[in-house]
Amino acid sequence: MKTLLSSIRLASTGNDLPSSIKSTSVNAVQKLQRPTLQLIITQAIDYPTLKGFPSTLEKLIINSAHLRTPVDRRIFTLKNLHTLDLSDNNITELPSNIQMNHLHTLIIRSNQLKSFPNNFQCSVLKYLDLSQNQFEKFDLNILNIHTLERLNLSLNQIKLIPRQILRLLPQLQVFNIASNQIRTIPSCLACSGTRLHTFHYAENPLITEKCITCRRFNITLVELALRVVIKYR
User: Fold this and answer.
1) Beta carbons of 6 and 28 less than 8 angstroms apart
2) Angle between helices 19-33 and 2-12 (to 10 degrees)
3) For the whole model, what pTM was predicted?
4) CB of 103 within 8 A of CB of 124?
5) Under DSSP, is residue 64 helix (H, G, I), strand (E, B) or coil?
């Protein structure tokens, strides 16, 4: 900093800078001008409560930082953010009217969410992870995110998969609803002509006689029945 200030004083008097100072000054300026693109916070003490977040952030990870509801709305005003991970916190509700036009990855694993916000506007969101929360039903607001390619709802208490899921999420390729309370699987998930290629639904109390034959996923009713027998014997 002293070198930088000296350089400024010399330049203001019209004197040429020594080559060593020129090099140092350029490096210092470049360092000062370099934008912050990624921020990782893993403890509450590091949370920027007073100074806020750099507006240039593209990736923000806040894990195990005791985040609670209401969630800091400054997070959702970061216009360049493409990845947001708020896992392992104590969030019970997300703010409504979220609009993040560059966000393609949203991970809120291991919190206390029971619902998903309405009027959620993220026009390029491709990956949504809401696993290990407290959902008791498949929140239909999720079906409004038509760009989703990967959806993880495992380790919740969801009882029913909506029949229109693949019609409203036409880009969906990976769907994980393992370890919930699903009793039946809608036949649409076994239909050809969709992009879905990976479907995880283990550890659910399936009623096998009402389940589909998932040939697309190399799983038959016989295998489903055997899984249930092994689980409850």
Assistant:
1) no
2) 110
3) 0.78
4) yes
5) coil
Q: What whole-number distance in Å separates Cα of residue 92 and Cα of residue 169? A: 25
Unique residue bearing structure tokens 């689980």? 231
Q: Which amino acid is at 118?
A: N
- Residue 186 burial (CB count, 10 A): 16
- Token duo for residue 191: 């239909």
**Where do the DSSP E strands lie in 74-114?**
83-85, 105-107
Contacts of 198 (CB under 8 A, 6+ apart): 173, 174, 175, 217
* Contact by Cβ (8 Å): 197, 174: yes
Structure tokens at 211: 């389940």
Give the other-Cβ count within 10 Å of 94's Cβ: 19
How far, CA to CA in Å, does 67 sit from each of 25, 59, 116, 153?
A: 40, 17, 17, 21
pLDDT of the chain, 233 residues: tens digit per residue: 555 455 555 445 555 556 555 555 545 544 556 899 999 999 999 999 999 999 999 999 999 999 999 999 999 999 999 999 999 999 999 999 999 999 999 999 999 999 999 989 999 999 999 999 999 999 999 999 999 999 999 999 999 999 999 999 999 999 999 999 999 998 888 777 789 999 999 999 998 655 554 555 555 444 555 555 555 66
Quote the CA–CA distance of 150 and 122 in Å, as a whole number: 15
Half-sphere exposure of 133 (CA within 13 A, CB side): 30
